[in-house]
Write a structure and sequence with these properties.
This protein has 339 residues and is α/β, with parallel strands linked by helices. It has two domains: 146 residues, Rossmann fold (3-Layer(aba) Sandwich); 173 residues, Rossmann fold (3-Layer(aba) Sandwich). The strands form two sheets. Strands 3-2-1-4-5-6 form a six-stranded parallel sheet, sandwiched between helices. The chain has a six-stranded parallel sheet with strand order 9-8-7-10-11-12. β8, α12 and β9 form a beta-alpha-beta unit.
Length: 339
């Protein structure tokens, strides 16, 4: 059906976090078909992220290519396309392009109309993680087992590519524990309160930590009035980096704290202590959306917050995790110096 020399497309045209949890498919496909070529179809705002994955050979920008539709997909001469997100427009174009193997979840009407290999599973009702559910779509290519999360943690193959601006690079040349706090999520998750994030800043001592507050420029307008001016170890980075630069910046830090957001998943993929703050409610619970990484950690609220409220997680609880992490890191550093 699909040979090692074939061209395979992975299509995921939604948000950063979803794309991060889809990227391990590329490495898994390469294990199944070592000689294949892999292209990833995404959006402009995820381009810098996808180009960091060295298991992907090429990025196809659907924002630019959708106007060409089937003609563009036909020109790629792909044997298979994996619709990790059932985007009806893209699925229609792949069908019209005559891509021989078109894989999608069976639970969408567009899959029955445009896909010819449909995999049965329910994302909302499953106990599997999102990254494991994505791997279910590889069964038509020969995947015989669902990989464990520890296995998926080794499949991202992300390498930051962008150069940091000089001002950002200068902030990283010291021995402090560098922690990113990313307070907002553009509505993709239930947030922790801004007051809680700022209380956490007060609990992390200035002689051990450097804290960077991140977000878009629009998010910065909401966040900046809350940033405590009296704390010299807290630095406002909102709106100062594009996505490629932000990925590089994350990779040079030690830890990141956020709700279920794209930056949380990026930090887990890059091997940081990624601390995710979650509601226990399905389908947004950590069993489905936890950061997947060898040093990732989840802190879950006791209950889902009422409408208009934020996660009820104590800042002291998050601070304890970061303080323990800093002690472990300092102990490792002392051990290296003695050896």
């Amino acid at each position: 059906m699909v040979k090692e020399t074939d061209h395979i497309l992975i299509a995921r045209t939604d948000s950063i976090g979803d794309v991060v949890l889809t990227l391990p498919l590329a490495a898994s496909i390469r294990k199944l078909l070592p000689g294949c070529r892999i292209s990833f179809i995404g959006r402009t705002y995820t381009a810098d992220l996808i180009r960091c994955c060295h298991a992907v050979d090429a990025f196809v920008n659907w924002d630019e290519a959708s106007s060409q539709g089937a003609d563009l997909l036909r020109s790629l001469q792909a044997t298979a396309i994996i619709h990790a997100l059932p985007d009806a427009e893209l699925m229609r174009a792949a069908h019209a392009a005559g891509i021989p193997v078109r894989i999608a979840t069976a639970g969408r009407w567009a899959s029955w109309k445009y896909a010819n290999h449909r995999v049965w599973f329910s994302r909302k009702r499953s106990d599997l993680h999102e990254s494991q559910l994505n791997h279910s779509l590889l069964k038509p290519l020969g995947l015989v087992h669902t990989p464990a999360l520890a296995e998926i943690a080794g499949l991202y193959q992300l390498t930051p590519r962008a150069e940091l601006p000089a001002f950002a690079s200068a902030l990283l040349h010291d021995s402090f524990i560098k922690v990113i706090l990313h307070p907002l999520s553009k509505g993709s998750a239930v947030n922790w309160g801004l007051d809680d994030f700022m209380a956490l800043c007060h609990l992390l001592p200035a002689d051990r930590f450097r804290i960077f507050i991140t977000g878009t420029e629009a998010e910065g307008l909401r966040i900046r009035p809350s940033i405590p001016a009296a704390l010299p170890h807290v630095i406002d980075m909102t709106g100062k980096l594009n996505l490629g630069e932000f990925i590089t910046f994350i990779g040079k830090c030690d830890a990141l704290v956020a709700a279920s957001t794209g930056p949380l998943h990026i930090s887990a993929a890059l091997g940081l202590r990624a601390i995710g703050l979650y509601s226990p409610e399905r389908p947004i619970h950590p069993g489905r959306w936890a950061p997947v990484g060898l040093r990732a950690e989840v802190i879950t609220a006791d209950a889902h917050p009422e409408a208009g409220h934020t996660l009820a997680i104590s800042p002291a609880r998050v601070a304890r995790s970061l303080l323990v992490f800093s002690e472990e890191k300092e102990a490792q550093s002392r051990g290296k110096q003695r050896s």
